[in-house]
Amino acid sequence: MSVLAEISGSIATVGYGLAAIGPAIGVGIVVGKTIEGVARQPELAGRLQVLMWIGIAFTEALAFVGIGTAFMFGY
């Protein structure tokens, strides 16, 4: 039996890379929906922008959980 390839190193870096995809998609959706909402009702632009920043903050919290998990299990 022969080994074709050997993987060495920490798999945590791959895990964090995969964990970063979700927040990136989430931020894109939040910003896109905010732009759509402002286009439909421009008078609500200020309120929608505040809600957008709150949504981005919650979405980016997932990235912090991902990097924390990578440090906990990877090292």
TrEMBL record:
Residue span(s) of domain V-ATPase proteolipid subunit C-like: 12-72
Pfam families with a match to the protein in the record: ATP-synt_C
Annotated positions for site Reversibly protonated during proton transport: E60
Assigned GO CC terms: plasma membrane; proton-transporting ATP synthase complex; proton-transporting two-sector ATPase complex, proton-transporting domain
Keywords: ATP synthesis, Cell membrane, CF(0), Hydrogen ion transport, Ion transport, Lipid-binding, Membrane, Transmembrane, Transmembrane helix, Transport
Gene Ontology terms, MF aspect: lipid binding; proton-transporting ATP synthase activity, rotational mechanism
Cell compartments where the protein resides: Cell membrane
Entry-linked PROSITE patterns: ATPASE_C
Domain of life where this protein originates: Bacteria
InterPro entries: ATP_synth_csu_bac/chlpt, ATP_synth_F0_csu, ATP_synth_F0_csu_DDCD_BS, ATP_synth_F0_csu_sf, ATPase_proteolipid_c-like_dom, F/V-ATP_Csub_sf
Transmembrane parts of this sequence: 12-31, 51-73
Membrane topology designation: Multi-pass membrane protein
UniProt similarity note: Belongs to the ATPase C chain family.
PANTHER family listed in its UniProt record: ATP SYNTHASE LIPID-BINDING PROTEIN, MITOCHONDRIAL (PTHR10031), ATPASE PROTEIN 9 (PTHR10031:SF0)
Known function: Key component of the F(0) channel; it plays a direct role in translocation across the membrane. A homomeric c-ring of between 10-14 subunits forms the central stalk rotor element with the F(1) delta and epsilon subunits.
NCBIfam families: ATP_synt_c (TIGR01260)
Protein's recorded name: ATP synthase subunit c
